[in-house]
Amino acid sequence: MPVPDRVEIDEAGDVALSAEQAAFLLGAALEDFLADLRAGHVYSVVERGEGADAGRIRLTLHRRSTRRRLVVEAGTGRVLDIDPTNDA
Predict the structure, then answer these.
(1) Under 8 Å CB-to-CB from 41, ≥6 apart: which residues?
(2) In angstroms, rounded to a whole number, what is the distance separating the alpha carbons of residues 44 and 83?
(3) Residue ranges of the alpha helices (H) in 6-48?
(4) d(C-alpha 49, C-alpha 41), whole Å
(5) Rounded to two decimals, what is the model's pTM?
(6) pLDDT in tens, 49-84
(7) Cα 43 → chain centroid
(8) Minimal CA–CA distance to 16: which of 88, 82, 72?
(9) Distances from the Cα of 21 to the Cαs of 5, 27, 40, 54, in angstroms?
């Protein structure tokens, strides 16, 4: 699965990722990701830009010690930046 260049923005204006997309972005096998999700080891944080960052959404995915941040254009879902980090 390639790194997405666009993500879905739902009717509420939130980023919507499939389990497959999230697992891929976090470098996990789908089965392991789903098991960790059920166990409460996966969560996300959504931040909406203000001021100079208005119109952007920063989505941070967490799974155990892995973190991946995406910056997304709020109106289109276009991925502007992906920051892989492993120091959560």
Answers:
(1) 63, 64
(2) 14
(3) 19-25, 30-38
(4) 26
(5) 0.86
(6) 999 999 999 999 999 999 999 999 999 999 999 987
(7) 10
(8) 72
(9) 12, 10, 18, 25
